[in-house]
Design goal:
- The complex is a heterodimer of chains A (222) and B (302).
- In chain A, helix 1 (10-39) packs across helix 4 (87-117), helix 1 (10-39) runs antiparallel to helix 8 and helix 7 runs antiparallel to helix 9.
- Chain A is mainly alpha-helical.
- Chain A contains 9 helices and no strands.
- Chain A is flat.
- Chain A has a single domain, classed as Orthogonal Bundle (MetI-like fold).
- Helices cover 77% and strands 0% of the residues of chain A.
- By secondary structure, chain B is mainly alpha-helical.
- Chain B folds into 2 domains: 1-41; 46-285, MetI-like (MetI-like fold), CATH 1.10.3720.
- Chain B has helices at residues 11-41, 47-50, 56-92, 97-112, 115-129, 137-164, 167-175, 180-217, 223-234, 237-268, 279-285.
- Chain B is flat, with a radius of gyration of 24 Å.
- The chains are: A mainly alpha (222), B mainly alpha (302).
- The interface between A and B is large, with 75 and 70 residues.
Chain lengths: 222, 302
């Protein structure tokens, strides 16, 4: 029944999707947190930069960003991500870079909304005992904010998983790329579609359930 | 400027902020200088490459038709997805389990799948099962993919919009003797539509962004693929990317601003219940569920 799968590395393609997701998730979490810290920082210039970055990146289609990493960053600016001789690896790393740049804007907004859920008294108490901005953020506010945004961040992660398919636009051999060539060459369109749909349900469903449960468990009880 | 996170800066803090600002400016300047240098090396700064955008031809031949196609696909997708979404959203609120459960399954299924896969699949389906011409097919495929995904997101928006209405509305409707169907069509839906408007406009941003997928992978001639024909003609890679990005930003920023204007207006309005549903609310309502309204996934609320 599944003989149409022969000759295709479906698991390998989904493994590529998982790798793209995992690396981009870590990268965008770090960059997104930094952006969020900038957006609430006492330095007006950093606040401005954070706001401008988020508003620009959120309004550009991810496809434009991904294509730009290949045609613009790699071809014009010579950013080959240390893989100028390995075209496949270069495409993969550029895709991760694009996904990080894009997803970080959403991570930043999620964390910023999380910062807003921390009661005023927490930050006031922190300042009252003499903590500075970085200390207040690092020791008091962010630990509480992160626990509050596990749910929203899970949504960002799920969206990121689905967004990795855009890497197909620069030829990264992930799930969407493989599905495109499979449905063009094989007769069982519906079965192939079902296999790939199932793959994404398997990737996204547990993420939502586990992180949703974790978010409820870890939420600061108030 | 002060906030709860830090005290109003004193003399030392102000000095430190100035130093930090200077360091930050230096870093930014370094980045810009590097970009400028590289662009100069590759000749991307030559006026020849920018000049087409000051004349009408680049706009009338490439950019405006591209933008037109982007907006056409987005508008078609929204117009078709909205009633479908309303149908499924209401079905999910049904009292009958045999309606509620299948509707929920369909909605969750299509929200879990990347919109690109839906487009690719729709395209192949049209190739094999219909005789839609190859000129029209990309539009059909793009709109189908967008409709399937966004109808399921809008179903959640509709459901959340109806649930956000005060319970008294339903109770009052029952009290004056309306039946369930009447309550839905003449009491709940009209109010829910107003409540949902900002969320629907935010979703439009997601749709506009997702049309770009069809341009690259299905050869639908929207704005992003118009860019590549334009760049092939004038050899202006970077300038064309910048212009296209600006167009997207202007369109989406207008939509976002319109959504928040609507939201503020609805919150302040004396008529109605003052409940508003923004993109972010939808996001929160679904925190633990599959999906998320982020465009190709990412976008929606956030």
């Amino acid at each position: 029944m599944f003989d149409f799968l022969e000759g295709y590395d479906v698991l390998g393609a989904f493994w590529m999707t998982v790798k793209l997701t995992a690396l981009s998730a870590v990268g965008s979490l770090v960059w997104g947190t930094l952006l969020a810290a900038m957006r609430v920082s006492p330095v007006p210039l950093m606040r401005g930069f954070g706001t401008v970055y988020v508003n620009i990146v959120r309004n550009i289609p991810l496809t434009v960003i991904i294509i730009f990493t290949s045609l613009g960053l790699a071809d014009i600016f010579g950013v080959t991500m240390g893989a100028s001789d390995d075209f496949k690896l270069q495409g993969f790393r550029l895709a991760v870079l694009g996904l990080v740049a894009y997803t970080a804007a959403f991570v930043c907004e999620a964390i910023r909304s999380g910062i807003n859920t921390v009661p005023l008294g927490q930050a006031e108490a922190a300042r009252a005992i003499g903590l500075g901005f970085t200390q207040t953020l690092r020791l008091i506010v962010l630990p509480q904010a992160f626990r509050a945004v596990i749910g929203p961040l899970a949504n960002v992660l799920i969206a990121l998983t689905k967004n990795t398919t855009v890497a197909a636009a620069i030829g990264v051999a992930e799930a969407a790329t493989l599905m495109k060539s499979m449905i063009e060459n094989e007769a069982q369109t519906l079965a192939i579609g079902a296999v790939f749909a199932f793959g994404f349900v398997v990737l996204t469903l547990p993420t939502g359930l586990i992180l949703g449960w974790l978010g409820k468990r870890l939420a600061v009880k108030r | 400027m002060s906030s709860v996170l830090y005290d109003t800066p004193g003399p030392r803090a102000r000095r430190r902020n100035v130093v930090l600002s200077l360091v930050f400016i230096a870093l930014l300047a370094l980045l810009i200088w590097w970009l400028w240098q590289k662009m100069d090396d590759k000749g991307q700064l030559k006026w020849d490459l920018w000049e087409p955008f000051t004349t009408g031809q680049a706009w009338t031949t490439y950019l405006l038709p591209g933008l037109g196609n982007t907006l056409k696909a987005a508008a078609l997708a929204m117009v078709i997805a909205l009633p479908l979404g309303a149908l499924f959203g209401i079905a999910r609120l049904s009292d009958h389990r045999w309606i509620r459960v299948p509707a929920g399954a369909v909605v969750e299924f299509f929200r879990a799948i990347p919109v690109l896969l839906l487009m690719l699949f729709a395209n192949e389906f049209y190739v094999r099962s219909t005789d839609i011409g190859s000129d029209e097919r990309p539009l059909y495929a793009v709109v189908t993919g967008l409709v399937l995904y966004n109808a399921s997101v809008l179903a959640e928006v509709v459901r959340a919009g109806i649930l956000a209405l005060p319970k008294g509305q339903t109770e009052a409707a029952y009290a004056i003797g309306l039946r369930k169907g009447q309550t839905m069509t003449s009491i709940l839906l009209p109010q829910a539509v107003t409540v949902m408007l900002p969320a629907i406009v935010s979703q439009l941003v997601v749709i506009v962004k997702d049309t770009a997928l069809g341009g690259v992978l299905l050869q639908y001639s929207e704005l992003l693929s118009a860019r590549s024909t334009l760049a092939a003609n004038y050899a202006n890679v970077i300038p064309s990317f910048i212009v296209v990005a600006i167009i997207f930003i202007v369109v989406n920023f207008t939509l976002t601003s319109f959504a928040s204007w609507l939201e503020g207006r609805l919150r302040r309005s004396k008529r109605g219940t003052g409940t508003v549903l923004t993109g972010e609310d939808v996001e929160e309502l679904n925190a633990a569920e599959v999906g998320g309204t982020l465009s190709t996934g990412t976008g929606g609320g956030i």
